[in-house]
Amino acid sequence: MKITKTLRTLAAAGLAILALSATAQERELNIYSARHYASDEALYAAFTQSTGIPIRRIDADDAAVLARLKSEGSASPADVVLLVDASRLWRAEVDGLFQPVASKQLDARIPASLRGKDGGEGSQWFGFSTRARVIVYNKASVERTDVDTYAKLADPVNKGKVCTRSGSHPYNLSLFGAQLEHMGEAKTRAWLAGLVANMARAPKGGDTDQIRAVASGECQVAVTNSYYLARLMRSTKPEDRAVVEKIAMVFPDQADWGTHVNIAGGAVARHAKHHAEAVRFLEYLASDDAQRHFADGNNEWPAVKGIRIANPALDAMGPFKADTLPVSVIGMNQVKVQRLLDEVGYK
Ligand code: FE
Fold first, then answer.
1. 3-class SS of residue 125
2. How do 55-59 and 98-99 pair as beta strands?
């Protein structure tokens, strides 16, 4: 009798603890983020301020976020996953790390070409901001007309002039994945081989390192995500000003299918414990305020159409024709692209 009573008391206490933690769960959101931009702190703070939902965030690079989600499995506390590349988002979806999101707001505001799967309702991931992969060149030594398409990066006229970060970095996998979709496998392989033949140095460093190398003359032409360039353009540091003085940029393929555009995006984690809060956060990222933040804070373009932004660097770059290839298709091509890179020896 006594034991039963004790058990009952314990059970009641356990239920009370469960109830407590359920209440606590409603009041928080766990984000695994690969966004690596200090200006985002304001974004998270604004969400917490307007909703009262505290955010716990784990920051890591894309690969580490995915590895962690996989190793944690159903025990993962992750509710929202933020990644900065279409190929990574696609990979995570294929690996079963996300779940479909039903949100009229997201469906209405995020263009279909910037969503996962077929871009239809119930997509598993959404692009919230876009970045263009632009070409930067040394004004003193390069003619703009020699570098105004991605194809020309592999032209013999640019022999010994090109530098890039690693070919298998997601930003390049996505660019090459878009080229593969447009040109087919044989042409893309030849193009990548031409790029390797034109390298001024073995691939190393990040995008900003390539821009600096163009300015210093170590190489003459490079590709970079637009926000790294915009960051330098807005910098007041004398060494950054000096870099910007020496270079010019071009949006490639304006006469053709347009400049390759990638996304930073987000999804609800497969095993999210705070599903409603997670969807609410994604909807917040599509709000006018958050969309403006991506532009003004991190020099990205809003994914939502018609958002007015005030960013002098993005204004200076001017409007451009963006490739409208669905980012999910680009992500899907990364496996083939990696094989081509191996074949042509693009490190
Ligand atoms: Fe980046």
1. coil
2. unpaired
CA distance 252 to 17: 59
Distance 84 CA to ligand 1 centre (A): 7
Distance 131 CA to ligand 1 centre (A): 9
112, two tokens: 């279909």
Q: Which CATH class is domain 28-129+261-311?
A: alpha beta
**Cα–ligand 1 centroid distance for 18 (angstroms):** 41
28-129+261-311 and 132-260+322-344, same CATH topology = yes
**pLDDT bucket at 120, cuts 50 / 70 / 90:** low
The identity of residue 229, as a single letter, is L
Residue 299, pLDDT above cutoff 80: yes
pLDDT in tens, 274-288: 999 999 999 999 999
Going from the Cα of 220 to the center of ligand 1, the distance in angstroms, rounded, reads 21
Question: Nearest to residue 254, comparing CAs of 314, 174, 319?
Answer: 319
Nearest-angstrom CA–CA distance, 114 and 318? 21
| Entry pTM | 0.88
pLDDT in tens, 173-211: 999 999 999 999 999 999 999 999 999 999 999 999 999
Helix (H) or strand (E) holding 253, with range, is none
Candidates 3.30.420.40, 3.40.1390.20, 3.40.190.10, 3.40.50.980; CATH matching 132-260+322-344: 3.40.190.10
Spell out the domain ranges in the chain: 28-129+261-311, 132-260+322-344
Residue 146 pLDDT > 50, yes or no?
yes
> What own/partner pairs with CB < 8 Å and gap ≥ 24 does 187-190 have?
188/337, 188/340, 189/340, 189/343, 189/344, 190/154
Candidates 213, 206, 183, 225; CA nearest to 340 is 183
